[in-house]
Write a structure and sequence with these properties.
The chain is of the alpha+beta class. It is 38% helix and 13% strand. A two-stranded antiparallel sheet has the order 1-2. Strand 1 and strand 2 form a beta hairpin. It starts with 11 loop residues before the first helix and ends in a 19-residue tail after the last helix.
Length: 77
């Protein structure tokens, strides 16, 4: 589906690409439920997303494949 103000579909990677190009050095601050604060910026988010995509490609994951993600819960000290 095309948006009303752009000539491309509104997809997650397009949003990340735009944010990195226009607001690359803008700080992004997140906080987990446990409390730690993490600081990054849009350019770093894009770089990390590209690394994830490259690893999925490397392991033969294709568009449309389902991928599960598991995180172990580690108690904070």
């Amino acid at each position: 589906m095309l948006g009303l103000m752009q000539d491309w579909p509104l997809l997650c990677h397009r949003i990340i690409d735009h944010a990195a190009a226009v607001h690359g050095k803008q700080e992004v601050v997140t906080r987990s439920v446990e409390g730690p604060i993490h600081r990054t910026n849009y350019a770093e988010i894009r770089a990390r997303a590209l690394k994830v995509g490259q690893q999925l490609d490397k392991h033969g994951i294709k568009i449309g494949d389902r991928v599960a993600h598991r995180l172990e819960h580690v108690a904070s000290s």
